[in-house]
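Treating backbone geometry as a discrete language has practical consequences that deserve illustration. Part of our work consisted of pairing the sequence of a single chain with a tokenised description of its backbone. We regard such an encoding as a compact summary of how the chain folds. The amino acid sequence and the backbone structure tokens for this protein are reproduced below.
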Amino acid sequence: MHAIEKILAKNSGKKTVLTGEIVNAKIDFAEINDLYLQTVYSFYEMGGQKVWDRERCAFVFDHYAPCPDVKSAENHKAMREFAMKNDLRFHFDTNCGVCHQVMPEAGVIYPGMIVVATDSHTTTHGAFGAMGTGCGATDMATILLTGELWMRVPEIIEVRLEGEAPKGVYPKDVILAVLGKIRADGAVYKAIDFTGSYVENLGVAGRMVICNMAVEMGAKTAYMQPNQEVLDYVSKRAVRPYEVQFTDPGYEYAESYEFNVSELVPQLACPSSVENVHTLEEVVAEKEVRVNQGYVGSCTGGRVEDIAAAASILKGKRIAPYTRLIIVPASSEVMQECIKLGYIQDLIESGATINAPGCAACLGVHEGILAPGEVCISSTNRNFPGRMGSKDASIYLASPATVAASILNGKITDPRPYI
């Protein structure tokens, strides 16, 4: 069996599972973000009184943090009351950050577990050898009641990434290149296992970037076999014992794709689809693309490494006149580390605006939304119309380095000469 299948078998009390089989699996951790107050309503409508395990579920206030309007403040109030009533061990309020960053930091994510959250980018946790997947409010209410959820055992695709990334090519460029080939519907309800020498040598942050965007291909979940850096990270934080699962030798994938990372160049996802991927060189050669806003943040591009990449390019310089650069650390821990290392000061002096940790403008409700006709280059994960504000704005997705180089010049720019 594949490691994912072993996780599903273990949590459903089976020795083996088969592709397409429906299993009822025990959930190791459940997370509800502040878009999903309906989960609380559904829980009570189903007759719920107390959650099944106060140590295995949490709210994360990240999408509307801090609250931009009265309605979101009311939602937060109701969720806090539910959390207090159930005496939840973990509660991540508006001072904490994005769910997919704060959960690993808190030690509730570890190899061999199943984590379900009310967010599609829960595939991120495959970076730790966990099975992470998203669900809606009704399914989450069921988990809060029972600690279990039914799942279909997915087909598993191998994406093999070999080689070493050249200068100026970041994990975001790698996953955009993969997306451009497999497309937005290429892995619907399938699992993606990222393998190969590039993955084996990749750090925690880079792994999270790649697994995060697996869902943009329709994936139900993503997976990477934990390397030593991951195990060191987890062992310092994990709140309970864990067991790493390994794929059996000779396992046959439903499909396999291979990419030579050594041959890649910086990539862009152009408006208005994540699969509309081109090399940066192609886009620049075709026309000059002026930008109004640069954005470094979110569960895809707001970690220390991402902010460091932007700061290294902008230190001692000023962003282009009449543009703005929004920096959103993925968590309070990330913010503090970036302050300690001087990145925040460097970015402020370059003209950047520093926002509170959270999702911010990634979902288009506050802290950097776009006006009609504006162009944003962003390290986030989606660029469809209306994602960051006006449906008549345009979003290009790129690495944090490309974002920094572009906002420095006021137009989409290759970052490699600035590194």
Notes: The mean pLDDT is 98. Residues 3-259 form a domain with the Aconitase; domain 3 fold (CATH 3.30.499.10). The chain has two domains: 3-259, 269-418. The radius of gyration is 21 Å.
